[in-house]
Structures are given as structure tokens and as C-alpha cells.
Design goal:
The complex is a heterodimer of chains A (111) and B (113). Chain A has no helices and twelve strands. In chain A, 0% of the residues lie in helices and 55% in strands. Chain A has 111 residues and is mainly beta. In chain A, the strands form three sheets. In chain A, strands 2, 5, 6, 10, 11 and 12 form a six-stranded mixed β-sheet that branches. Chain A has a four-stranded antiparallel β-sheet with strand order 3-9-8-7, with no helix packed on it. Chain B is an all-beta fold and 113 residues long. Classes of the chains: A mainly beta (111), B mainly beta (113). Chains A and B meet through strand 5, strand 6 and strand 11 of A and strand 5 and strand 10 of B.
Chain lengths: 111, 113
């Protein structure tokens, strides 16, 4: 079964700094990987997804992620964050019939 | 094209009452998923349904919880005899297929008093 681990529960950064949110997965079958963002009191919004092909995936709001099969990682990056990027970020992976999420990373962007 | 619609947004129930949460998937999506998010925790998978079929209910508590996705109408998550520990945000998602990204609704926040 697929499992997903987000290595940091909280990531504080200053505005305009780069950020990386880490995600590792484990699976013995082919995987589909996703990053979602959740703003307070809202549902989840898809940032980007990896299904196959290029290992560098670009998403919305300037985010990108790189699929690294040898390290079983799918880290999310943004070169310069804004205050409005403050939110909870979830990494998810599918194997079979369902999408499994990590525990989430709270990104807090400070002025 | 409306997104995934969940209602109600907020639901308050007394202990022992029943809670019914509704989810209308996006047009053209035949796969529906329910997740629960407890305070300060991540999203836990509950159940995966297609029209008239439960595909995977391995995340559902064995008692008091049930889900359906009838041929007509929304998917329903039903919690009987609610307890305080059921207080959580319940999210529904839909997709055209299991390898596509899920589209999530805004959730139903259940409070049991």
C-alpha cells in the first residue's frame, strides 16, 4: 500500500524567501503523486500532479515539484513566497483505488 | 461547471442524533471519495464509491458510519448516534478516474454537542 510522509509539520519563512516542503513516498507499484493546498476553513485545492513523463512538474501559484524515483521523494518548491502562500500543504499519492495523504505541512510566511 | 458541492457547510448535532452529509460531484465525475479531518490532524481516507457501488470502505469505522452514492442524487455520508469524537471536517472529492487529480468540496464541519 502507498504511504506518504511529510517530513516537516511546520515551516516558517520570511516573505520573498525560497521554500521547500518535503515529501517522501513508499510504494511497490507505479505511483501518481499530488500536492494540494488548504487555506483556513476551506477545502483542498490541487497545486500540481505527477502522473508520468517529465520529473519536474509545474503547478499553479508559482509552485513546482520534482519527482525523484531513486530517493522516493516529491518535494514542493517555490523560489519566492508571498504572505498569501500561508496555508497547509498536503502531499498525496495513489496506488490502486485511493489517494493517501501525508500529515500536512503548515507553511507560515512572515513579513 | 460547478465544483464539488457539499452541504451543509456546518452541522450541529446533539449526542445520539444522526448526521447526514451530502456531496454532489462535479459534472462528469463518477468517482466519489470521503475524507475526515480531525482538528490539528491530516486527512484520513474513509470510503471510495462509484455509482451504486462501494469500491473501498477500508477507512470507515465499522459501526455507525455508512455511505452511499445512488444512481440519482448526491452521495450521502451517514453517521448514526453521533458522539463527541465524530466532531470533524468531512470532505468529499470527486474525479473522472482514480489516476486523475481529485477535486475537493469545501467540506462539512460537524460539531457534536
Amino acid at each position: 500500500a502507498q504511504s506518504v510522509t511529510q517530513l516537516d509539520s511546520q515551516v516558517p519563512v520570511f516573505e520573498e524567501a525560497p521554500v521547500e516542503l518535503r515529501c517522501n513516498y513508499s510504494s511497490s507499484v507505479s505511483v501518481y503523486l499530488f500536492w494540494y493546498v488548504q487555506y483556513p476553513n476551506q477545502g483542498l485545492q490541487l497545486l500540481l500532479k505527477y502522473l508520468s513523463g517529465s520529473t519536474l512538474v509545474k503547478g499553479i501559484n508559482g509552485f513546482e515539484a520534482e519527482f525523484n524515483k531513486s530517493q522516493t521523494s516529491f518535494h514542493l518548491r517555490k523560489p519566492s513566497v508571498h504572505i498569501s502562500d500561508t496555508a497547509e500543504y498536503f502531499c498525496g499519492g495513489t496506488s490502486g483505488s485511493r489517494l493517501t495523504f501525508g500529515e500536512g505541512t503548515q507553511l507560515t510566511v512572515n513579513p | 461547471n460547478a465544483g464539488v458541492m457539499q452541504n451543509p457547510r456546518h452541522l450541529v448535532r446533539r449526542r445520539g442524533q444522526e448526521a447526514r452529509l451530502r456531496c454532489s460531484p462535479m459534472k462528469g465525475h463518477s468517482h466519489v471519495y470521503w475524507y475526515r479531518q480531525l482538528p490539528e490532524e491530516g486527512l484520513k481516507f474513509m470510503v471510495y464509491l462509484q455509482k451504486e457501488n462501494i469500491i473501498d470502505e477500508s477507512g470507515m469505522p465499522k459501526e455507525r458510519f455508512s455511505a452511499e452514492f445512488p444512481k440519482e442524487g448526491p452521495s450521502i455520508l451517514r453517521i448514526q448516534q453521533v458522539v463527541r469524537g465524530d466532531s470533524a471536517a468531512y470532505f468529499c472529492a470527486s474525479s473522472p478516474g482514480p489516476s486523475d487529480g481529485y477535486t475537493f468540496g469545501s467540506g462539512t464541519r460537524l460539531t457534536v454537542v
